[in-house]
Design goal:
five-stranded parallel β-sheet; 2 domains; Rossmann fold; UDP-N-acetylmuramoyl-L-alanine:D-glutamate ligase; alpha/beta; four-stranded parallel β-sheet
């Protein structure tokens, strides 16, 4: 588990308690943040309660009291955001992802970011395999069975993160040492996603060593 020490003692809301959000809420709670977590799905709330995560109905809260709202990637946060996302932004607080929690908590690590469509998970696995084969400490996450906040802390190692377009929008602090863009397919696709993935390469990876794979990748 990742210790979210920058958030200790601060009120943080978590919206979405599937695997991704529950791991984030658990890590924040165990790091002594003041967590208020919610999900519209009662089964998800029950699972969170079993993990001793504070489950709080957020419908009547004062969003100015929270420093951050951590959301699962699937929560709408673009042009037509979830009402709680809009309320948070209107209150002047930030809306962030679990990847943002990781970046602020593991500052000495290096980061490899992979975005794209078909083949992204395979590329993450390949990079992880090559790094560990060479004797380097590495962790891979961002997929349904590997939430980022359930990864192990690294002392100077490398995190390989799958970064779908919707997560890029709510991750502001990571400067990726290596950025890999798998696709999009030249035959067409979501222009909005392609635009966000382009910004991923042009902006997020601009501050350090910049190596990118802009490749039409197919497993067929």
């Amino acid at each position: 588990m990742i210790e979210c020490f920058p958030f200790a003692g601060y009120p943080v809301a978590v919206l979405g308690l599937g695997g991704e959000g529950r791991a984030a809420a658990r890590a924040l709670h165990l790091s002594e943040a003041e967590v208020s977590a919610w999900d519209a799905d009662a089964a998800h709330r029950d699972d969170a309660a079993e993990d001793e995560i504070p489950v709080v109905d957020l419908s009547g809260v004062d969003w100015r009291e929270f420093v951050s709202l951590v959301i699962e990637t699937s929560i709408p946060h673009g042009s037509d955001p979830h009402p709680y996302v809009r309320a948070t932004l209107d209150a002047g607080s930030e809306v962030i992802s679990d990847a943002e929690l990781l970046a602020r908590s593991q500052r000495l690590a290096e980061y490899v970011g992979v975005t794209g469509t078909d083949g992204a998970e395979f590329v993450c696995q390949l990079i992880h395999y090559l790094l560990t084969l060479s004797g380097k400490e590495a962790e891979m996450g961002g997929f349904p069975l590997s939430p980022l906040m359930d990864l192990h802390p690294l002392d100077g190692g490398t995190y390989i993160l799958y970064m779908p377009p919707d997560k890029l929008d709510i991750t502001v602090s990571i400067t990726f040492d290596t950025a890999c863009w798998i696709g999009p397919d030249s035959s067409g696709g979501d222009a909005g996603n392609a635009s966000r993935q382009s910004r991923f390469l042009e902006e997020i990876a601009s501050g350090k060593r910049f190596r990118s794979i802009h490749h039409h990748f197919s497993l067929s």
